[in-house]
Every structure is written in C-alpha cells, then in structure tokens.
Amino acid sequence: MRALCARMNTLEALKKTWITKLGGIEFYILPIGLVGSYLLASMDVISLPVGAGLTFAISLMSAMAYHICVYYTLKCPQCGKNLSKFNNGKNIPSKQLHNGFASGKPCRHCGWQPEYGTLAGR
To answer: How many CB atoms sit inside 10 A of residue 65's CB?
Structure first.
C-alpha cells in the first residue's frame, strides 16, 4: 500500500482515466476498419473506397475527440484553470503532458497536487 500522502496520478485523482483509453481507440479503429472494409468489399456489401474512407473519417474523429478531451476538459479542482495549458495559454506538448500527469506534477497556476487520502474536488 502506498503512503497516505504519496503522489497520485492526476487523471486518477480527477476520475478521468477514460481519456487514456480514448487515445488508444484510434490505433485500433484504423487496422480493424481497413480489414473490415476489405471483407465487406469482397462480399459486395460496400465498395472498398467508401469503407476505407469511412474508416479514416471515424479514426480522425476519435483522434479529434481525444484532443478535445485532453486539452479542454482537464481542469484543476482547486483553481479551475486548465491543467493542459501553459500559463501563457499555449498547449503543453502531449508527451510532456502525459509524463506530468503520470507523475502527479502540481498545477502550474495554483500548485494543487493530487495526493492519496484527499478528495479530488477539494
């Protein structure tokens, strides 16, 4: 068991771990959709260009949904500022952002830090 005041994953503290799963969906949609569209085209259900186009469109929409969720829905429970933006308003690069969330880095605006034994909203 971890210590009571140890650092916690930021997404766990905000109860938004589903965002990481949303980011992985696009990598499964593309190959599965292309194989599925090929199979449907071989059975003359749908043409291959239409199936591949739909697959690319759905993959792109899931990537955009992930981007919107990461950069617009993650707010600090203490000050209400966006956790995925710098103080000047620019987006934090995704690799730096995910490393910071995994290590439980504090909020750049107020210093809030996710800890075990505390409520996420306090």
So the answer is: 15
The whole-angstrom separation of Cα 115 and Cα 13 is 8
By the 8 A CB rule, do 57 and 29 touch? no
Q: Is 80 left (phi over 0), alpha (psi -120 to 50) or beta?
A: left
pTM reported for the whole predicted model: 0.73
Q: Which residue, among 116, 113, 102, 118, has the nearest Cα to 1 in the 3D structure?
A: 116
Q: How far, in whole angstroms, is CA 24 from its chain's centroid?
A: 8
50 SS3 class: helix
Contact 120, 8 (CB under 8 A): no
Query: Rounded CA gap, 46 and 50, in Å?
Result: 7
pLDDT tens profile 78-113: 888 888 888 888 888 888 888 888 887 888 778 787
Least confident of 38-47, 63-72, 105-114: 105-114
Residue 12, both tokens = 């766990």
Please name the amino acid found at residue 70: V
